[in-house]
Design brief:
Rossmann fold, 6-stranded parallel beta sheet, 39% strand, Tumour Suppressor Smad4, 20 strands, 307 residues
Length: 307
């Protein structure tokens, strides 16, 4: 990867959309669906790379599982060595790949394998054309913010959301939302979701939260099955400090980052949450917009029709 060039784009912030100029893709990193083999799709990437003298890396366990020609490496080597990361799977695989991307410099090309993915850019039949487009610089790179959680000795970054949720057999989550050090509102609920704009269409949306454009900068706090009078989401600016304090009436809570259990908190504990601008970048070819993908994935098309 030789150089980066930013392009100002119709009122969007420079950090949101970049044009990535690749003089040469020296190394491609593959991240695979945990169950599907994707063998023909992997071979498409390997064959395309072989023809261009490009090296292909794969995570060691995944390479061993499918027996492909990719060079087996660990997470850190993948993140540091790849010029382009390719996610072959659904939204879960895409999130894993984006989490890898936060440790390196490579943008992520999402290839949907199986059910319709919200985050992926192309379907399998379009993969070779997408690779050619990247090779010919016909694409943009869209920045996606992350959310960083800090509590005790735990430091964790997620691309969708950080969630405090009731542990089985324990009382509900009773959580105070503090903004800039001042108490704002308290939720009594099954869980409290702190989502990025990317994660606004995931757990937060299923709990009744709004859809937020990925070009927005901020954090969305949404209660799940709230038991109190105030049951609305709160959207905070990226520059505002957010603390989630577990109040004395609360039970013990699990903490998840992008659906992965990362720790537990108890009454008296606090989780400091901050936004990470441009934590990862995804390749966009201009075939669809965020709103078109939202319509398809969330089946919203009918709501936009009139007459």
């Amino acid at each position: 990867m030789r150089d980066w060039r930013e392009q100002q784009c119709s009122g969007r912030r420079r950090a949101d959309i970049e044009v990535l100029r690749m003089g040469f893709i020296g190394t491609v990193g593959l991240v695979l669906h945990p169950e599907r083999t994707c063998a023909p799709t992997v071979e498409t990437v390997v064959g395309w790379s072989r023809a261009r003298g490009t090296k292909v890396l794969g995570l060691a366990a995944e390479v061993a599982r499918i027996g492909c020609e990719a060079i087996p490496v660990g997470d850190e080597e993948m993140a540091a060595g790849a010029d382009l990361l390719i996610s072959l799977g659904g939204d879960g695989t895409m999130l894993r790949t984006m989490r890898l991307a936060t440790r390196g410099h490579a943008p992520v090309l999402g290839v949907n394998v199986g059910r319709l993915g919200f985050l992926a850019e192309v379907d399998i039949p379009d993969l070779r054309g997408a690779l050619d487009a990247v090779d010919a610089h016909r694409f943009t790179v869209e920045a996606r913010s992350g959310v960083h959680a800090r509590f005790g000795d735990v430091r964790e970054t997620a691309l969708n959301d950080v969630v405090l949720l009731r542990s089985p057999g324990h009382r509900s989550a009773v959580v105070a939302v503090r903004v800039q050090g001042e108490p704002f509102v308290s939720y009594t609920a099954d869980a409290v979701v702190c989502a990025t704009p990317t994660g606004s269409t995931a757990y937060s949306f299923s709990a009744g939260g709004p859809i937020v454009s990925p070009n927005a900068e901020g954090l969305l706090v949404t209660p799940v099955a709230p038991h109190a009078a105030f049951n609305r989401s709160v959207f905070l600016s990226s520059g505002e400090r957010l603390d989630l304090e577990v109040l004395p009436p609360s039970g013990d809570l699990a903490v998840e980052a992008d659906g992965l259990l990362v720790g537990h908190v108890s009454p008296g504990d606090s989780v400091e949450v901050t936004m990470v601008p441009a934590a990862a970048r995804v390749v966009r070819l201009g075939h669809t917009t965020f709103y078109q993908r939202a319509q398809r994935k969330l089946r919203l098309t009918g709501s936009a029709e009139h007459g």
